[in-house]
Write a structure and sequence with these properties.
Length: 421
C-alpha cells in the first residue's frame, strides 16, 4: 500500500511527488509511460523556463533536471515505461510494464498529472488531399530537437499558440524558410514575448483572421490555400492566398489528457475539458488529486510547479489524516471569462488566501477583474492588458469568504468605473 501514487512523471508529477514526500508521505511512487522522466520539457530546448520559480532563465531539460536530481535523496520510487490502464474510485491502479508485467497497485491517495495532447488535422477538419508533410507542432519539435530529423524546408504554421511560435523560430534556426503563421482569430493565442522573440525578431509574418482552406499535394505537401475569414470565422471568397510549401505545422490547441479520469468517473469541466478541482486540487472523488495541464492548459511551467506542489501537499495530508470534507462554494465565470480554476472552494482548507486562475475570451485594455457575490463586488483588480493567450491569476483573501452569499462567487471583467457587469 502506497501513501501517494503520482500518474505522470513530467514537471507536474515531479513537483507533486517531491512535495508529498516533503509533507510526510513515506511511500510515494511515480508512474511514467515514457522511458525517462521530465515529460514534454525534454524536447523544449529553448530557454525561458524558471523565471518565476527559480528566478533565473533555464531550458526545458534544465528545469526538469532540477527536480529529477532531488529524487535521489527522497526514497521516492519511479517506474518508467509503465502504462496505467485503469484507475478506480477506491484508489486502485492497474498498470503494466515489461519488467513487472500486469500490476495492481493500491494507494491511500493519487495525484493525476498526465498533461495534455495536441489537436490534430482531423480534429479541426482542414479540407484537401492527405499528403505527408503535415505535423503537429509538438511532433515536429520532437523530430527536430530529440530525433535529429528536419521535417521540411518551406514551412507554413497554422495557429499562433506558443508551441507554434517557438517552432517558427526553431525551423528558421535549422535553415528552413517559414512563410508565415496563420491565425483564425483576430489576435494571437500565444504569449506576447513569443510573438516578439519568435516572429518579429525573425521577420516571420503573422496573418490574423486567416485560416487554411485547402492543402494540396500528391505524396508530399506542395501548396496550401489560405483565406481571410469574416467576423463569424467563415472564409471570405476571393481572399485566397496561395503558398508553395512542403510542410504544414499545426498549433491549433491542446486538450487535457483525461481518458483515465473519465474511466474513473471523475467530473470534467466542459469549459476546459480538464478535471473539476477544489482549492487544494482534489477532484470530485475524495483522495484523488490533479494538477498541471490535465486540469487546464498553462502558459508557464512555473505555475504548473506551484499548483502541483499544492496537490502533492494535499495528497500527503489525505494519506496521513483522511477526509477533508466541508461545505464548498462555487466559482462561476461571468462576463468575458471563459473558465475558472479551482471551480470549488472549501473555506476551511484555506490558510490565508486562495489563488484563482482564469482566461478571458478576447483582448481587453484598461479593465478591472471583479469578484462578486450576489449584487456585491467583493474585490477589484485593475489590468492594463488582458488576452486569451495569457492566463490570469487573482488572490482572494480568506477573510472575504464571510461576505459570500448563496454559496457562489463570480469572476467577471468590466470597464473601470462601469458598475453593471
Amino acid at each position: 500500500m502506497y501513501d501517494v501514487i503520482v500518474v505522470g512523471g513530467g514537471p507536474a508529477g515531479l513537483a507533486a511527488a517531491l512535495e508529498a514526500n516533503k509533507n510526510g508521505a513515506k511511500k510515494v511512487l511515480i508512474l511514467e509511460r515514457n522511458h525517462e522522466l521530465g515529460g514534454i520539457l525534454n524536447q523544449c530546448i529553448h530557454n525561458g523556463f524558471g523565471l518565476h520559480y527559480f528566478k533565473e532563465e533555464l531550458t526545458g531539460p534544465e528545469y526538469a533536471d532540477r527536480f529529477i536530481k532531488q529524487l535521489s535523496d527522497t526514497g521516492i520510487e519511479v517506474m518508467l515505461d509503465t502504462m496505467v490502464l485503469d484507475i478506480s474510485k477506491d484508489k486502485t491502479i492497474h498498470a503494466m510494464n515489461k519488467r513487472n508485467g500486469y500490476m495492481t497497485l493500491e494507494s491511500k491517495s493519487i495525484v493525476l498529472t498526465m498533461g495534455c495532447r495536441e489537436r490534430t488535422r482531423g480534429a479541426i477538419g482542414i479540407p484537401g488531399t492527405r499528403p505527408s508533410g503535415v505535423f503537429t507542432a509538438g511532433t515536429a519539435q520532437l523530430y527536430v530537437n530529440i530525433e535529429g530529423y528536419m521535417v521540411g524546408k518551406r514551412v507554413l504554421i497554422l495557429g499562433s499558440g506558443d508551441i507554434g511560435l517557438i517552432m517558427a523560430r526553431r525551423m528558421v534556426l535549422e535553415g528552413a524558410e517559414v512563410l508565415g503563421v496563420i491565425e483564425l482569430m483576430p489576435y494571437s493565442n500565444g504569449l506576447n514575448r513569443n510573438i516578439v522573440q519568435c516572429l518579429e525578431d525573425y521577420n516571420i509574418p503573422l496573418y490574423l483572421s486567416h485560416t487554411i482552406t485547402e492543402i494540396r499535394g500528391d505524396k508530399r505537401v506542395e501548396q496550401v490555400v489560405v483565406s481571410k475569414v469574416d467576423e463569424n470565422r467563415k472564409p471570405i471568397s476571393g481572399s485566397e492566398i496561395l503558398f508553395d510549401c512542403d510542410t504544414v505545422l499545426l498549433s491549433v490547441g491542446l486538450i487535457p489528457e483525461n481518458e483515465l479520469s473519465r474511466q474513473a468517473g471523475l467530473a470534467i469541466d466542459s469549459r476546459t475539458n480538464g478535471l473539476i478541482v477544489y482549492e487544494n486540487m482534489e477532484t470530485s472523488v475524495e483522495g484523488i488529486f490533479a494538477s498541471g495541464n490535465v486540469v487546464h492548459v498553462h502558459d508557464l511551467v512555473d505555475f504548473v510547479t506551484s499548483e502541483s506542489q499544492r496537490a502533492g501537499k494535499a495528497a500527503a495530508k489525505f494519506a496521513l489524516h483522511g477526509k477533508m470534507h466541508s461545505d464548498s462554494i462555487e466559482v462561476e465565470n461571468g462576463n468575458a471569462v471563459t473558465y475558472t480554476v479551482p471551480q470549488r472552494i472549501r473555506c476551511e482548507n484555506i490558510e490565508k488566501f486562495v489563488e484563482i486562475f482564469f482566461r478571458v475570451n478576447f483582448v481587453y485594455k484598461d479593465v478591472e477583474i471583479r469578484i462578486s457575490s450576489g449584487c456585491e463586488v467583493l474585490a477589484r483588480f485593475k489590468r492594463e492588458h488582458m488576452a486569451p493567450g495569457e492566463m490570469e491569476k487573482v488572490i482572494f483573501p480568506k477573510a472575504m469568504f464571510s461576505k459570500v452569499k448563496e454559496g457562489k462567487i463570480t469572476i467577471s471583467i468590466a470597464k473601470v468605473g462601469e458598475e453593471n457587469d
